[in-house]
Design brief:
Blueprint (H helix, E strand, L loop, with lengths): L1 E4 L10 E4 L9 E10 L2 H8 L4 H7 L12 E9 L11 E5 L11 E5 L4 E2 L6 H6 L1 H12 L9 E5 L4 H13 L2 E6 L4 H6 L4 E4 L12 E6 L6 H6 L1 E9 L4 H9 L1 H7 L3 E4 L8 H9 L7 E6 L3 H9 L6 E5 L1
Parallel strand pairs: 8-9, 8-11, 9-10, 11-12, 12-13, 14-15
Antiparallel strand pairs: 1-2, 3-4, 3-6, 3-15, 4-5, 5-7
């Protein structure tokens, strides 16, 4: 089978389309013919081996352990292991396979049965592939840490990307007021999804204004923990989803003390693959939340998709059609 493979950290130049053996499903696995896979920031980090924590978190210290990246897939079940009960050959499925070895940027992948969900007929493979990681993380951000109420003032920092476009829609369903922060080129998109206010982070620093917020959902970083703390109202909450190594360390080791000794809660979101994905799917099927797909690339152009994401130019999700 064809797969995009890399053997050393560095740049997207290290990715190459190769012929590799097709996997065989284990007893609790399903073999999926991948029809679409989405690009996530984890993929960009793993290709570069940066921030360094991605190596410590299982990427491999000196060279990649996961030779084929990609964790959000949608496709058709080709074969099932003898202990599989949920699926049969021919079923259309999707899911986040990060807990099952990655490998989504390939023609076939064999993954644990529990990582897959039946794909609704109304969704295309591309739409289904856009949901798992970005949509689930957005859902975690609005459900796991704070009860967001109608009228709350919520910042989404990095609102024009995958997680952010889902988060805008989910927060607006509650009736909160959304301030969406990203590049000016994404203003129209963010407003079309319901953002009440938009800020260009390249021209304005929202953390130094007089405005303060009930909740900050931070997808990209760009500020220190104490900058974000300043922008919170008393009783406010900050949750980091992504950012540079320095901010991740602050969120892991300093935020607990800030939360313990003050009236503002701060911390990091620990991604839980596929959590409440059925609920997310209901929102999408009802038309209350829509996937935003900015670009679709063939498998051989995965490096270009990663570069678009890495530069911050991506509107919503980039999808690899296989």
């Amino acid at each position: 089978m064809k797969a995009m493979v890399y053997h050393t950290y560095g740049s997207t130049d290290n990715l190459a389309l190769e012929q590799v053996p097709q996997p065989d499903p284990k007893d609790n696995e399903v073999l999926v013919r991948v029809r679409a896979a989405s690009v996530n920031s984890w993929d960009w980090d793993l290709v570069r081996g940066e921030p360094f924590y991605v190596r410590l978190a299982g990427g491999g210290l000196r060279k990649p352990i996961k030779k084929i990246i990609g964790c959000d897939v949608a496709g058709t079940v080709i074969e099932v292991g003898k202990k599989v009960t949920k699926f049969k050959a021919g079923d259309e499925v999707f899911g986040d396979i990060s807990a099952s070895g990655w490998g989504g940027f390939a023609e076939y992948v064999s993954v644990q049965e529990k990582t897959m969900t039946h794909k609704p007929e109304a969704l295309s493979f591309e739409e289904a592939a856009s949901l798992p990681q970005a949509g689930v993380m957005a859902l975690q951000a609005i459900r796991d840490f704070r009860e967001i109420r109608a009228g709350d003032q919520v910042v989404i920092n990095g609102a024009g990307g995958g997680v952010g476009t889902f988060a805008i829609q989910l927060v607006k369903l509650i009736g909160a007021e959304v301030t969406a922060i990203d590049r000016a080129s994404k203003f129209e998109l963010m407003q079309s999804l319901g953002a009440d206010h938009v800020i260009d982070f390249e021209r304005e620093d929202f953390t130094v204004s007089e405005d303060t917020y009930d909740y900050i959902i931070d997808v990209v970083g760009h500020h220190s923990l104490f900058d974000f703390k300043r922008a919170l109202k008393p009783g406010g909450d900050y949750r980091m989803i992504g950012g540079p190594s320095s901010l991740i360390l602050e969120a892991m080791f300093i935020a607990p003390f800030v939360s313990l000794f003050g009236n503002k809660k701060m911390g990091i979101l620990g991604h839980k693959p596929n959590k409440n994905i059925e609920l997310l799917m209901k929102y999408v099927e009802a038309g209350e939340v829509k996937p935003v797909i900015g670009s679709i690339y063939p498998l051989e152009e995965l490096p270009a998709a990663l570069l678009e994401l890495g530069k911050g130019d991506l509107h919503g999700k980039a999808i690899i059609r296989i």
